[in-house]
Design goal:
With 203 residues, the protein is mainly α. The chain has ten helices and no strands.
């Protein structure tokens, strides 16, 4: 069950914003998280196509990055791997390949579940899977992921980075709450939807 075009714009905008944050935070990682120039070039090509909403080319380019990310030891390169899977999932959503996007989202979330959490990046992992699940018709799954995404975004807002990035983080959380309200309304849970809308209106 697909939701409104407006909600889709919200979710993709939020995912892309936080996926960009992944690039920023990568500068602060340990040498173990270093990547090759070749990988960085592939990654940039992927992100460029996603930003242009060139779905066909984005899927091809971002799959290459995802495949390269798969080659890293699961215990290393968490930011690099998570970012690769978030962008690949986003490209697949743009191409309306929702089941494949769910699988890519699963891989992004798996990185978070291994204990690699930096708030906004973890939010992006759950956030992209929300859209994939919602568009694939799994509103219950989207609802559960939104609760987790919102939790991570609240943590990001209250963390050190939240002071400098309060505006963007607040905007993303507002988008998520509004989208969550639409998911809950589509599920027939009007009271819960109203609460999310009220929370969003206060941001």
């Amino acid at each position: 069950m697909k939701l409104s075009i407006l909600a889709t714009a919200f979710i993709l905008g939020g995912v892309f914003t936080h996926a960009q944050d992944v690039t920023v935070t990568a500068k602060d990682t340990t040498p173990d998280d270093s990547v090759t120039q070749q990988f960085m070039a592939l990654d940039q090509e992927c992100r460029n196509y996603v930003s242009k909403h060139d779905a066909a080319n984005a899927v091809i380019a971002c799959k290459k990055v995802s495949d390269e990310a798969d080659k890293y030891d699961p215990k290393t390169h968490p930011i690099t791997r998570r970012g690769a899977y978030v962008f690949y999932a986003t490209a697949l959503i743009q191409a309306e390949k929702y089941q494949d996007a769910v699988k890519a989202g699963d891989k992004a979330v798996a990185v978070v579940l291994m204990g690699f959490d930096d708030g906004s990046g973890s939010n992006a992992a759950y956030f992209v899977r929300v859209q994939a699940r919602a568009d694939a018709g799994d509103l219950n799954g989207a609802d559960q992921d939104l609760e987790k995404a919102e939790k991570f975004e609240h943590a990001a807002l209250n963390g050190p980075a939240g002071q400098d990035l309060h505006g963007p983080y607040s905007k993303t959380l507002k988008w998520e709450l509004m989208f969550h309200a639409q998911v809950l309304a589509a599920m027939g849970n009007k009271d819960a939807a109203a609460k999310k809308s009220d929370e969003a209106s206060k941001l």
